[in-house]
Specification:
This protein has helices at 82-88, 102-105, 125-137, 169-180, 220-224, 262-265, 300-309, 340-350, 383-393, 475-490, 499-508, 530-535, and strands at residues 2-7, 13-18, 35-37, 43-46, 58-66, 72-81, 108-115, 148-153, 159-167, 185-190, 234-239, 252-257, 326-331, 368-371, 375-376, 397-401, 412-413, 422-428, 446-449, 453-458, 467-472, 510-511, 527-528. Helix 7 packs parallel to helix 10. By secondary structure, it is α/β, with parallel strands linked by helices. 20% of the residues lie in helices and 23% in strands.
């Protein structure tokens, strides 16, 4: 193998690997100033780019000239007629086979063959079929009998060859070489399957590193290309409720307001059927506890909901992790937070349990619950533990934030709760490092992006105002990345995974922390990898 770095006149550079034995034909363009740095020399043929300005009956032969002092290789180009090149370079027959796509294509269903202009096979279906019949009769491969058939000529002039069976990589490579042995053939490539791809056109998507494939991202953009986007799944966000938002409305289900204290609810009554967030501002110091400050409304639940399921690919705003899922907005936090009893009721209700005096959730039962909330104290023996255990038993996965005190999660609720299918989430930054504020410890299961996360919000400082988008940081922002991932993987056909299976998959298919990593076992198994997790679902 020749390891080479290709540098062009424009100053661009790219790495390449050129095998010298039976290499695929490589097209690097026809720039005489191209240089390669390599341990030895050789001669390669390069097809020129196919466009209207190219003489298609020519190829170029490039000779590597090595300098022993600099080990730089300068390429000298010689343009010759195709007929002369073929006559003098029969060794290139094997180089006409494009093997690059075989490694990722899976089973191969056919082959695209380009025949040389002016050859006996060009535009001659009968001649092509005779050649294919000869290969079929040769008893190709180690498996069952095979029949090759010319299917059709493509718009670009190449021909599609199909067979009566699919091929693994080994057999496909062997057959491609047999097809390329025909002197009429210019190139052969596998007819691999391609799938719809998506890069959202939302205005601020470029700011959402947490969904992207960089070092600190979750690889959600790759996962979306698999086509499983959370459709039919419901993510309950137990939080401050929600504000109507142009980038969220289509994916919101109004749940229930579980706040019993009227002052905390700040909406003029206690529990009711509206999960709308009226604002949670604190107008005076010491209102919530001694030393508590004056604060603006956080619209926290709206931000969390946007990370889960903001309307995506709508040329506006932000994207959501599971943007075909629905968010069941459940209000349990208000001015000065929320009580353990109210939050436990919300967990029970959202997961399909019975809460006296509250209508059943019915068809809106959550696939996964997100709780971006917490407080001091151990969860052991608490009603929160009982509520979570009940939710897990009803096959609802529960995702909770680890907390923002840079302390061990063992001293916080619900982060210290336990159960197979309860996922406790720490926060990392765009460099794949532990967020400075994130709680840690053996109770953390996995980490996710949680620093400077852009999402949906409201511009009101106290009461609701206009829609807007704001960066927030916290394990509250990391947790909904994971809840959204649960919806993605559960939306695969036949992916009805139990909560314990969901937890295992997410903790297994992860990305590493950047060096130096946090101490082993303190921030979970790694950073979530949405792509590989969804790939390896269902359970």
């Amino acid at each position: 193998m020749l390891q080479a770095k290709i540098a062009t006149r424009a100053g661009c550079a790219r790495n390449a690997t050129i095998p010298f034995d039976d290499s695929a034909l490589r097209t690097f363009g026809s720039t005489p100033s191209t240089k390669l740095k390599a341990p030895r020399s050789a001669i390669l043929a390069f097809l020129p780019p196919r466009d209207e300005r190219t003489h298609r009956n020519h190829i170029e032969i490039w000779r590597f000239q090595m300098s022993l002092r600099t080990r730089n290789i300068r390429l000298a180009a010689l343009t010759v007629a195709v007929s002369a090149a073929v006559a003098s370079t029969s060794a290139f027959a094997g180089d006409l086979v494009n093997l690059g796509a075989l490694s990722s294509s899976g089973p191969v269903d056919g082959f695209i063959v380009t025949y040389k202009d002016g050859s006996a096979s060009k535009n001659n279906k009968a001649a092509i079929q005779r050649s294919l019949d000869s290969i079929s009769a040769s008893g190709f491969g180690r498996a069952k009998a095979m029949t090759l058939r010319h299917d059709r000529t493509l718009g670009v002039g190449a021909d599609l060859v199909v067979a009566n069976r699919s091929f693994d990589r080994v057999d496909a490579e062997q057959l491609m070489r047999q097809l390329a042995a025909n002197p009429d053939v210019a190139s052969v490539e596998p007819n691999i399957r391609l799938y719809p791809t998506l890069t959202p056109n939302d205005t601020f998507f470029n700011l959402q590193y947490g969904f992207q494939s960089g070092i600190g991202g979750s690889n959600a953009d790759q996962a979306w290309n698999l086509g499983f986007l959370g459709a039919g799944k419901i993510v309950a966000v137990i939080d401050t409720g929600y504000r109507p938002h142009v980038d969220l409305n289509a994916n919101i289900i109004n749940g229930y307001d579980f706040i019993t204290n009227v002052a905390t609810a700040n909406d003029g009554n206690g529990r009711d059927s509206s999960a709308l967030d009226p604002g949670d501002w604190s107008p005076t110091p010491n209102l919530c506890y001694p030393g508590s400050p004056v604060t603006n409304s956080s619209w926290h639940g709206t931000h969390v909901a946007g990370t889960v399921a903001a309307v995506t690919n709508n040329a506006a705003g932000v994207a959501g992790m599971a943007y075909k899922s629905k968010v069941l907005a459940v209000r349990a936090l208000g001015r000065c937070g929320g009580t353990l009893a109210d939050i436990a009721d919300a967990v029970t209700w959202a997961s399909g349990g019975t809460v006296p005096g509250v209508p059943a959730v019915g068809a809106n039962k959550a696939t996964v619950i997100n709780m971006s909330l917490g407080g001091g104290g151990s969860c052991a023996g608490s009603v929160m533990q009982t509520a979570i255990t009940g939710a897990l038993g009803r096959r609802t996965t529960v995702v909770v934030a680890a907390g923002n005190s840079n302390a061990n999660v063992s001293g916080f609720t619900p982060a210290s709760c336990t159960g197979a299918g309860l996922i406790v989430v720490g926060a990392t930054d765009s460099a794949a490092k532990k967020a400075s504020f994130s709680n840690f410890g053996a109770g953390v299961d996995v980490s996710a992006p949680g620093v400077s996360i852009a999402s949906t919000l409201n511009a009101g400082t106290t009461v609701p105002g206009a829609d807007n988008y704001v960066y927030y940081s916290g394990t509250s922002m990391a947790s909904p990345h994971v809840a959204g991932l649960v919806a993605l993987m559960q939306s695969k056909p036949a992916a009805d995974c139990a909560p314990a299976q969901v937890e295992t998959l997410i903790k297994t298919w992860i990305k590493p922390f950047a060096a130096p990593p946090p101490p082993v076992g303190t921030m979970g198994t790694g950073i979530i990898n949405a792509f590989t997790t969804v790939q390896n679902a269902p359970c």
